[in-house]
Amino acid sequence: MTQSILFVCLGNICRSPTAEAIFRVQAEGRGLEIDSAGTSGWHDGNPSDPRASAEAARRGIDMSYIRSRKVMAADFERFELIVAMDAQNMRDLQVVQPAGSPAKLVMLLDYAPKLGISDVPDPYYEDNFPEVLDMVELACGKLLDSL
Length: 147
Ligand code: 4NP
Fold this sequence. Notes:
Blueprint: E1 4-9, H1 15-26, E2 33-38, H2 50-58, H3 75-78, E3 81-84, H4 87-96, E4 104-107, H5 123-126, H6 129-146
Parallel strand pairs: 1-2, 1-3, 3-4
Helix pairs in contact: 1-6
Bound molecules: 4-nitrophenyl phosphate.
4-nitrophenyl phosphate is lined by residues 9-15, 42, 122, 124.
């Protein structure tokens, strides 16, 4: 069974830390290693976007412990499953994945086909945090079911 999962978006302050926090709650007691990172490094060391944290807090989910960090080569050894939020994240991950690394790259919304879209919309620009959290909760639950 998959034991280690990394969620990845661009900035690691909106979508992937939200997925990390939600999945950590959903997977409580399963002993999984769970983390998130960004492809850009633009927000390294920063807490999550307050709009994401506020929407998560409304749902009883704490994001205050998360700090942004950039994806690194070691992540492809440490994590069995790397979950991209959108197609650009996936392309960026494929570029930096070391040859022969065992990590499997997947798209989060592949686990929620009923949504009918493949990319988690970027709420940093669209300011649609409740909608994005609904999508992430649904898809993370299905991802957990699939493990
Ligand atoms: P995220 O959203 O990839 O879901 O964390 C973004 C955060 C920051 C920026 C873009 C997207 N930015 O341009 O700084």
